[in-house]
Amino acid sequence: MTGTSGYCGPRRQWILLACKVNLVLSATLMLVSARERYNYNSRYPVPNFMTSETNVTFMAGDKAVLECAVENLGTRTVVWRKLPSTTPLTIGRFLYISNDAIAVEHISDSYYWNLHIHPVTVDDEGEYECQVASSDKTIRQRVNLTVLDKKEKVKSTPDIRIFSPEHVNKGHPIQLHCNATGADTQLDELDWFINGHRVSTNFQKGVYIDKTVSLGSNTISSTLHIAQASMEDMGTYTCRTSAAQIKSTKVTVLNDQSDIPKDKRENPTESIILPAANPEPSNSHNGGTVISIQRRLVMLTIVLWIWT
Fold first, then answer.
1. Tens digits of per-residue pLDDT, 19-29?
2. Is residue 168 exposed (0-12), middle (13-18) or buried (19+ Cβ within 10 Å)?
3. Which value, to the nearest 10 degrees, does the dihedral of the CA atoms of residues 159, 165, 167, 171 take?
4. Which of 12, 68, 89, 160 is the most buried (most CB within 10 A)?
């Protein structure tokens, strides 16, 4: 037995080394496979600005709302400043300068970081910038603010626009903005509809509508807030003014629960199931094939290790 052990010693050392190399390769394959299957890099995509009004006009004394909607913000912060100054007005939700007329409106988990100036003055007129604080200094959007003195006569051009996301994950908030400008008829009301049905504020259902009217510039704006999107919230959204101006947009609700803990999903059993081994696997089964090979390599490693 002693002679046999001495004779097989070098061989066992080579086998042990091979097992260790095999273990490292197996772990590497598992890491690469996991990154491909779950696409970790895409969890933090580059932020981008949603469509919003970049030229706004308000009467002196009214509340000016400068819109800024950012998708894929993640843990980054939104900063507002008035150009050409580099000093921030706001950082996130917090006011950086001493000016009680300025505030940021933001609802948790929403895309919108709107700058409010109330009351707005002629001195507030100018170019403002909404920037995402990051190493990439190019993620910024500018909004031109025009403030009219109440003595000036305003000539309105009829217009109505909706700003909204095209896709929203189920359980996430929805915010839709509607801005309308009237002509000869004074705008004093704006209604919201979902798939033809009128929507009203209902706090129990998480639905809230706010409205801002500017008599001087004959404009009206309204925001429809839905705290948690459900599949029933998918469809066509329409805003209609008291002057019969109408605009519609479509919002798709995605039943994506990948960012919800398994124990809180509607059907916890609907987790990821690895595909069975296939002699001729397609591209959609590559992850299952790689994991199957990894399991065999790990089992072989354990057996060889015990044997040595």
1. 666 666 666 55
2. buried
3. -130
4. 68
